[in-house]
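A favour, since you know our structure tokens better than I do. Would you make up a two-line entry for one protein for me to read? Write everything out right here, beneath this request.
=====
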Amino acid sequence: MAITKQYLKSKPICKVTFTVPGEGVKEVAVVGDFNNWSATGSALKKLKNGTFKGTFNLPKEKTYEFKYLVDGNFVNEAEADRLQWNDYAGTENSVLEL
């Protein structure tokens, strides 16, 4: 798994690209507080090499909690900026700091 960030000079956004290996996986989505934890519209596209990838424009200078939804199971990003406990979910979430 990997995250890349590209800050735009002309706009107050960051292009965040999420990449997830997809061996044996049917579908992957990114869910977090930036999209109300909804998988609708946040699915990653499966590439020919089996990897899932997607880019999202997010406002910079903010912090977001998120997880991957891999075939219906929540998975944290190993390369996230950090992990943070979430009392509502009763688990740790990945954190993206822009």
